[in-house]
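User: Design a sequence. Structure:
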């Protein structure tokens, strides 16, 4: 558990755009034994949610929100060596965001979480067209595909990606996640055979820990 004070300090540095201080904060937490999941959820995710709320209420500008996101992406790179510590387990995943979905930090954290569990991951990032994803799946079939969707308006595009992935590979395990799927909005996805909604990194870790092809 990351101490609330450490979170507040990091948030102040993030909003202030002090990348060096953010680096020092994250390094200190790593050295103190923080796990990747703690950093991802309790620090990076929690602080970006707070930045989003403060941007939404007009307290922070779009520029500060962009700055905080880019610093967070730098921090993900800082902790990336820890992601690669485990030996590869021979499984492959493709992680992508829906078409028109420009929120990619969550998808990237999902990709890094899988990689930290020993998976080889292709992360395709923001705004991936459904047909591009389906062609990659057909060309290099993975064990799992994960699709991230944040904005409710992008749910139809995410559903198209899921359906095209299912058509390309009838037996592929498909998981979906992201903020748009909360409040019971996953029903259409769950109606597609072999699709599962995963709502947290803990659930994702549990899924891969008891993985059966
Ligand atoms: C940064 C940001 C942006 C950046 C994104 C840049 C980037 N490189 O990603 C930019 C500037 C592009 C952006 C644009 C917009 N944004 Co914005 N943005 C944010 C902000 C502040 C942070 C997003 C983030 O990275 N969160 C942190 C990550 C780690 O959290 P996460 O995505 O939830 O992911 C975690 C879990 O959900 C889960 N997960 C996610 N995906 C998956 C997938 C699988 C398979 C699994 C297992 C798990 C999983 O695991 C992750 C790690 O724990 C959020 C605030 C928020 N609440 O998130 C607003 C927010 C998401 N944005 C919002 C809005 C409104 C917009 C715009 C519509 C604004 C506009 N008018 O243009 C556009 C839409 C663009 C688009 N079409 O996608 C609203 C959405 C409201 C809503 N309910 O729909 C939010 C919530 C802000 C707010 N409080 O109002 N945004």
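Assistant: Done.
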């Amino acid at each position: 558990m990351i101490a609330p004070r450490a979170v507040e300090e990091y948030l102040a540095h993030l909003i202030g755009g002090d990348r060096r201080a953010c680096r020092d904060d994250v390094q200190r937490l790593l050295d103190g034994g923080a796990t990747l999941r703690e950093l991802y959820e309790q620090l990076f995710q929690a602080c970006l949610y707070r930045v989003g709320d403060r941007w939404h209420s007009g307290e922070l500008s779009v520029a500060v929100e962009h700055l905080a996101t880019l610093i967070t992406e730098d921090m993900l790179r800082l902790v990336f060596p820890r992601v690669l510590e485990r030996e590869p387990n021979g499984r492959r995943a493709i992680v992508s965001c829906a078409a028109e979905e420009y929120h990619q930090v969550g998808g990237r954290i999902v990709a890094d979480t899988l990689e930290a569990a020993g998976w080889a991951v292709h992360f395709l990032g923001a705004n991936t067209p459904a047909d591009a994803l389906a062609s990659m799946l057909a060309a290099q079939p993975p064990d799992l595909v994960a699709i991230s969707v944040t904005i409710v308006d992008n749910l139809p595009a995410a559903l198209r990606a899921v359906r095209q992935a299912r058509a390309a590979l009838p037996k592929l395990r498909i998981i979906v996640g992201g903020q748009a799927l909360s409040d019971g909005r996953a029903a259409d996805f769950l109606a597609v055979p072999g699709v599962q909604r995963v709502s947290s990194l803990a659930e994702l870790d549990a899924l891969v820990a008891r993985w059966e092809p």
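The mean pLDDT is 97. Residues 62-83 form the longest helix (22 residues).
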